[in-house]
Design goal:
The chain has 286 residues and is an alpha+beta fold. The strands form five sheets. Strands 9, 12, 14, 15, 16, 18, 20 and 21 form an eight-stranded antiparallel beta sheet that branches. Helix content is 19%, strand content 35%. Among the domains are: 30 residues; 169 residues, Glucose Permease (Domain IIA). It is globular, with a radius of gyration of 25 Å. The chain is built from five helices and 21 strands.
Length: 286
C-alpha cells in the first residue's frame, strides 16, 4: 500500500497543479483569500482627507452612500471645515461579509485674519463684476464635478512651493473690518513669477487667467473627485487636458484677482468638500 501511494503522489501533484491553472480553481482560491481589512491613511479631523484601500471587488459605503472604487480598490473621502457629523464606513465583500469603521472627525480652533486696504470696487463689486464672478464659479464647479479614474491622490502630496506660509486653512478673514468667508486654502509667499509645482500628478481641467476674485486660476484633477486649485497666478505653464506629474512646474505666482500682494493660494477639494492642504501633506501612500 505504501509503495502504491508513493507511486500515486506525483500523479496527484500533477492534477492539483493543472487545476490551479484553471479559472474555476483560481476563483475558488480567491474566495477564501479576500483581504477584507479596511486600510486608511489620513487624519480624522475637520478638513482632513482620508484615502483608503480594500479589495477591488468589494462595495464601500460612507453613511450608506457608495464611494467610488478604483480598479485597484482605492477610495477617498474628506471632512469639511466645520464637520461635526459621525461617519460609518462599511466594506461589504463579494461573499457578503461586512467590516465597519466608525469615524468622528476631531474639532479644531481656527485663527482670525484681518486684511485691510482692499479696494471698494472689490468689496462692493458692480453688477457687471457680480455677473462675471457667477460665470467664474460655474466654470470652477464644472471642473470640480469631474469624476475620473485617476488615482494620483493615493500617492501622497508635496508642497507646491517651498516658501513661508502666510495664510492657513479655516481662518476667518475680515476685509476692511467686515467679516468675510473663511479661508479655505494655504497661502505661500512668493514674488510675481516665482515657480509653482504640481503637488500631485493629474490632469489639468481648468485654466482661466483673469477670474474676478481669484485671478489666474488653475485646477488639476487628481482622481475620484480630488482636485487642487491654484489662485492668483500670473501665468500657467500647462494647458487644459495635459497630464502633469508630481513636482512638475505648472504655473507662476501672481497678484491677480482679489489679492493685496503677490502669493500663491493653494486649495484642495473632494467634490464640494473643502480640504485642508496642510493635512493632505501628511498623507502616507497605501
Amino acid at each position: 500500500m505504501k509503495v502504491l501511494l508513493k507511486g500515486l503522489l506525483p500523479v496527484i501533484n500533477n492534477i492539483v497543479s493543472a487545476m490551479a491553472k484553471t479559472s474555476v480553481f483560481a476563483l475558488f482560491i480567491c474566495s477564501f483569500n479576500i483581504d477584507a481589512k479596511i486600510v486608511l491613511s489620513g487624519q480624522v479631523k475637520q478638513g482632513g482627507l482620508i484615502i483608503g484601500k480594500v479589495s477591488a471587488d468589494s462595495l464601500i459605503t460612507l453613511n450608506d452612500e457608495p464611494l467610488k472604487l478604483s480598479k485597484q480598490g482605492d477610495f477617498v473621502f474628506g471632512f469639511s471645515r466645520d464637520d461635526k457629523a459621525s461617519y460609518t464606513l462599511v466594506e461589504t465583500t463579494i461573499d457578503g461579509q461586512t467590516f465597519t469603521k466608525v469615524l468622528q472627525p476631531a474639532q479644531r480652533q481656527y485663527k482670525i485674519d484681518r486684511v485691510e486696504g482692499i479696494a471698494k470696487k472689490i468689496t462692493h463689486p458692480n453688477p457687471k463684476n457680480i455677473a462675471r464672478s457667477k460665470k467664474d464659479r460655474k466654470q470652477v464647479k464644472q471642473a470640480r464635478a469631474i469624476i475620473s479614474e485617476l488615482t494620483d491622490f493615493s500617492q501622497g502630496f508635496e508642497t507646491p512651493r517651498k516658501s513661508t506660509i502666510t495664510g492657513v486653512y479655516g481662518s476667518q478673514r475680515f476685509y476692511n473690518g467686515k467679516a468675510g468667508s473663511p479661508h479655505y486654502g494655504v497661502d505661500f509667499r512668493g514674488k510675481v513669477g516665482a515657480p509653482v509645482n504640481a503637488p500631485a500628478g493629474g490632469i489639468v481641467t481648468l485654466w482661466v487667467p483673469d477670474m474676478f476674485y481669484s485671478g489666474g486660476t488653475l485646477i488639476i484633477d487628481h482622481g475620484l473627485g480630488v482636485n487642487s486649485t491654484f489662485l492668483h497666478l500670473s501665468k500657467s505653464h500647462v494647458k487644459v487636458g495635459q497630464r502633469v506629474e508630481k513636482g512638475q512646474l505648472i504655473a507662476a505666482v501672481g497678484q491677480s484677482g482679489r489679492a493685496n500682494g503677490p502669493h500663491l493660494d493653494w486649495r484642495i477639494n473632494w467634490f464640494n468638500v473643502r480640504i485642508d492642504p496642510n493635512l493632505v501633506l501628511n498623507l502616507k501612500p497605501l
